[in-house]
Amino acid sequence: MRQIVLDTETTGIGEGHKIIEIGCVELINRKLTGRHYHQYVNPQRLVDPEAMEVHGITDEFLQDKPLFAHVADDFIEFIKGSQLVIHNAPFDVGFMDREFAALNGYPKTADICTVLDTLTLARQIHPGQRNSLDALCRRYGIDNSHRELHGALLDSEILADVYLFMTGGQTALTLDSKEEDDQPSEQELLKTLIVDPSIAANLPVYGVSEQEKEGHDAFIKMLSGKCDKVLWEK
């Protein structure tokens, strides 16, 4: 399965505002491939001061950048046929669709991609908790200390880690290495525990809080709703 973790930065919020930065990273079968798409865009309008405080992208910086019309084909080529993974997807998809609509003959995002909203997913897994990207980084122990300002590529890289941790998956690049081959298999680790029970006796045992149990139950309920039959209900 090919997924594209995507983020945008804009001139502001609401009608009339434009995309000024696009950042994407690629996942295939839930593994980071190292491929990415990154582009600054000249919006042909001023950036709101409030937005500039968030991402730090100035009007002067954007003056020599290409128009969205000039990068749209490359952007579509990178994302088409994938599942887009976006935090608060209606915001980014709304801006993308307005940019596409301004060009003759271009599709809507839903015509070329499916979309997974990680904010909706996080609210299902962690109901009643803060689920901003920063809050999720703290919850999953992801270092985002280098994120002084928002940036589309940086935020998409961070979101990829958050998404994979949140759904219990791989976060390493798909690079072959002897070091990875040298790691003991799960069966070998189990044999070690059986041969030397003192190792198992000294392993820490952690309990589950009510909040964690509620989050787990909500996640299982969400998964059950997406499947016709699930083994854990038997």
Shape-level CATH architecture of the largest domain: 2-Layer Sandwich
Going by CATH, the homologous superfamily of the largest domain would be Ribonuclease H-like superfamily/Ribonuclease H
Number of domains: 2
Q: Characterize the biggest β-sheet.
A: 5 strands, mixed
User: Can you give the mean pLDDT?
Assistant: 83
Sequence of secondary-structure elements: EEEHHHEHHEHHHHHHH
Number of distinct helices: 12
Which segments are poorly predicted (pLDDT under 50) over 5 or more consecutive residues?
174-202
Number of strands: 5
**CATH structural fold name of the largest domain:** Nucleotidyltransferase, domain 5
Strand order of the largest sheet: 3-2-1-4-5
Q: What is the general shape?
A: globular
CATH class of the largest domain: Alpha Beta
* Spatial separation of the terminal alpha carbons: 28 Å
What Rg do the Cα atoms give?
21 Å
Approximate helicity band? 40-55%
Structural class: alpha/beta
